[in-house]
Design a protein that fits this description.
Bound molecules: uracil
Distance between the termini: 33 Å
Shape: elongated
Radius of gyration: 22 Å
Oligomer: single chain
Order of helices and strands: HEHHEEEEEEHEEHEHEEEEHEEEH
Helix content: 10-25%
Number of helices: 8
Length: 257
């Protein structure tokens, strides 16, 4: 049994305090990233003496700012938190969905370097790959992770052997395993060969290790696990370890959930 079966909802709070990047960024880029104006216009704000960094007026366009700097325009503090970013990563195996790891393992934040303090929306196991959303939009992340919203997540799963019809029915009817209830899943059998079966499993809960535990409850092992879709957003052709910003249509789709 894979331990730690609380839902992923709640991990969000783990991420806010500790995720600080020390990357620097040109002042105009920073300001436009905060939604102040275009980069060109923000340059003019600087040259015109309207911008202060840590209490000092800056007029050089070569000024860099880093996380933690207090930046003001016309006396009003701006914040990179005002710029919301929405990213999808094709998480490879061998990295964890945390800000840091005491064992020194690679984290998903080593793969996605952006200025904003982003955090993963939910978790994939160390040895699971596929679609992981990252954002600094706490509200949307909450919505996606809250079990009440029953957000669909689709997994490609390779299991040992060939599950019988009765076993598939158990997955489709919902399972209780080691005292934890798993809601009915949609299960499609894709093919069976070399003593392995490929399934597509759609779940709406987001419990930790839910696919592995559901399969383990049948007395079988998961050989390969990849998430391909969340709430209708698909990984598509993104290569392992690559990331991209979501487009406007994808963001709207998530927000309209
Ligand atoms: N279910 C699992 O068992 N592991 C994951 O990483 C995701 C879903």
């Amino acid at each position: 049994m894979h331990a730690n079966n609380q839902t992923n909802y709640g991990v969000l709070l783990d991420y806010f305090p500790s995720m600080v990047y020390n990357k620097t960024m040109r002042i105009n880029k920073y300001l436009s990233g905060c939604g102040i104006d275009s980069r060109r216009k923000c340059e003019k704000f600087v040259v015109d003496g309207r911008v202060r960094v840590n209490g000092k007026t800056v007029t050089e366009l070569s000024t860099d700012v880093k996380d933690g700097d207090v930046v003001e325009v016309d006396g009003r503090t701006v914040s990179s938190a005002t710029r919301k970013v929405y990213i999808m990563l094709n998480k490879p195996k061998g990295c964890i969905c945390s800000a840091s790891d005491e064992k020194g393992r690679k984290t998903v934040l080593d793969l996605v370097k952006v200025r904003e303090r982003i955090f993963p929306v939910g978790r994939l196991d160390y040895d699971t790959e596929g679609l992981l959303l990252l954002t600094n939009d706490g509200e949307l992340a909450n919505k996606l992770m809250h079990p009440r919203n029953m957000v669909k997540k689709v997994y490609a799963v390779r299991v040992e052997g060939e599950p019988s019809d009765a076993e598939l029915r158990r997955l489709r009817n919902g399972i209780e395993y080691n005292g934890i209830k798993y809601s009915p899943a949609q299960v499609r059998v894709l093919n069976s060969e070399n003593n392995e079966t490929k399934l597509e499993i759609t779940v709406t809960e987001g419990k930790n290790h839910e696919i592995k535990n559901m399969i383990e409850s049948l007395g079988r092992r998961v050989m390969f696990l990849k998430r391909s879709e969340i709430a209708g957003i698909r990984l598509g052709g993104l290569s392992r370890g690559e990331w991209r910003y979501l487009n406007a249509r994808e963001i709207d789709k998530l927000k309209s959930l």
